[in-house]
Amino acid sequence: METLETLRAKIKTAEELLSVVKTMKALAAVSIRQYERAVASLAEYSRSIELGLRIVLRKGPRELSALQQKKDVMPVGIVWGSDQGMCGQFNDRIAAFAVKRMNELKPGPGEWELIGVGARIVARMEEHGYTVKDVFPLPSSVGGITRAGQEILLRIDELRSRRKVDTIFAFYNERLSGSTYRPCTVQISPISLEWLMGLKKQEWPTRMLPTFTMDWERLFSALVRQYFFISLYRAFAESLASENASRLTSMQNAQKNIEERMEGLWAGFQHLRQTSITEELFDIVSGVEALMVKRK
């Protein structure tokens, strides 16, 4: 049977846990906002890269047939998960989605070279029979995304130099609004030939047409690399925003459960306290009555 002391201890523990949950909610909300701004900042940068590609493609000395997809020994899949827990079904959803899309693109767990971003996605992929050979940690803030993206680019360059790797897919959760998100996939490489041809045919927005003196192949390669980097940066920012949105939902549910539990504990505490007071009063009344009987 519970006593007032044990109930007080449980109430204190619940209050401390509630404080932690509220702090995590606040941190998740702040993180969502900073990653949202990071995604928004990519818009102008991405537009600049597209304008550069339009000029380079207009003056290109060669056809773009060399950019057609090659027959890979093994395509590369980059799957974004989380390093930390308490984010609900975040990792499970993206893992199930990635496996489904990979089976549609090229069936068989052994047909893919997998790169994991976030330690917790590894176990989820292994549950589906896929082995993640390289794992990269997630940055703790927006400022670390650039370095993390560059590290993955270096790894991709290494894979390209060692084997005939050309096709690269990114699988990550994309934030929609509020605390909702959805899994998505983006083909990072090779760049869609149709998309490039569409850029080439677009009219220039002003009457002044820029020019360049740099070697065409070097400039085009630099712009394509920047396009790859933007794609990776967006995947990082969207995934981290989605992770914090999922964590925010989990913390809101946890807060609701803790508050309901505390209400039950306080009700039990008040009931037990009132019962204890009533019993003490009965003891006092009984004692008084006994004394009165003795005096008579």
Q: Brief overview, please?
A:
With 296 residues, the protein is an alpha/beta fold. Helix content is 63%, strand content 11%. The chain has 6 helices and 5 strands, in the order αβαβαβαββαα.
Structure characteristics:
296 residues; Pyruvate Kinase, Chain: A, domain 1
Question: What would you say this structure looks like, in words?
Answer:
There is one protein chain. The protein has 296 residues and is an alpha/beta fold. It has a single domain (24-250), classed as ATP synthase, F1 complex, gamma subunit (Pyruvate Kinase, Chain: A, domain 1). It contains six helices and five strands. It has helices at residues 4-58, 90-105, 120-127, 145-162, 193-201, 216-295; strands at residues 76-80, 113-117, 132-136, 168-175, 181-189. The chain has a five-stranded mixed sheet with strand order 3-2-1-4-5. Helix 2 links the parallel strand 1 and strand 2 (113-117). The protein is elongated, with a radius of gyration of 30 Å. It starts with a helix and ends with a helix.
Mean pLDDT: 85
How much of the sequence is in beta strands? Answer: 5-15%
Elements, N to C (H/E): HEHEHEHEEHH
Low-confidence stretches: none
CATH T-level fold name: Pyruvate Kinase, Chain: A, domain 1
Radius of gyration: 30 Å
> Span from first to last CA?
40 Å
